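Ticket #4471: structure output looks truncated?

Reporter: J.K.
Steps to reproduce: submitted the chain below (110 residues) through the standard prediction queue, then opened the result file.
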Amino acid sequence: NHAGFYEMQALTVGRLVRAVALETGLSTAAITCPMRTGPVVRARDAVIWLARRLTNRSLAQIGEALGGRDHSTILTAICRAEHRRDTDPAFRLLTDRLLARFQEEISSWA
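Returned output as attached by the reporter:
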């Protein structure tokens, strides 16, 4: 179930940041700031993983929405998120739950 181009345009990285913030109890400012503490990096990785699956934003655009991060930083985070999904059941549950929620929302736009 892939979102269409226009639906993917409508879903912003900012909305994903807000959703992950709500789920994790972190602030949106913490997720987008330079902080590198474990819970913040974990939440940011979730946003990045979701953004690559649910939007058509480039790595550079995702990085810009997350406090001006470089595209290579975003690529590293995607790899880290994939590894987290394989090794951290709670992270997989978080990302799967949000992925399903946004896919359902996107499908209702059609």
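Triage note (M.O.): checked the attachment and the full token line is present. The radius of gyration is 13 Å.
Status: closed, working as intended.
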